[in-house]
Amino acid sequence: MDSNFMHGFPVEGKSEPVRLTSAQKAQIAARSRRGLATVLLAQAVSGFLLSLLLWLFVGWGAGLSALCGSMSYLAPNAVFVARLVLSTFSAKGSGPIMFLLGNGLKVVVAIALLWALSRVDGEWVNWLAVVAGLVVTLKGYWVAVLLTGGRVTKLM
User: What stretches pass through the bilayer (predicted)?
Assistant: First the structure.
């Protein structure tokens, strides 16, 4: 194979690995922490706002149900984000395996919390509101994207 081509694409000069200074690494880590916090905040605000609106216009049962649906995702996601933020302080960071395992665990815990809610004996549980709270919180990231024009770290 011709040394001037890599994976079928021409290479200009020799390819050198990118070397970052410690200041550049710190800047990237700080930007990552701001982005993670912004997304979590946007999800929390979205879920709480929906819960408040449902409580005001539909009733306390719908508001509480939406809050439970929202928290079933927000609580495990907050733990996952905290783990990611802590990894930004480490020189090693977080590897892809830990990221995938953490994300999988987050989903399992969210499902377990929804299952626990289904075991609650109460006529107040409004499942449409639970699902709405869950979906609005899951998609709360889009609130941050819309408010910043795609640059999520601008909010913090």
Answer: 35-58, 64-86, 98-118, 124-147
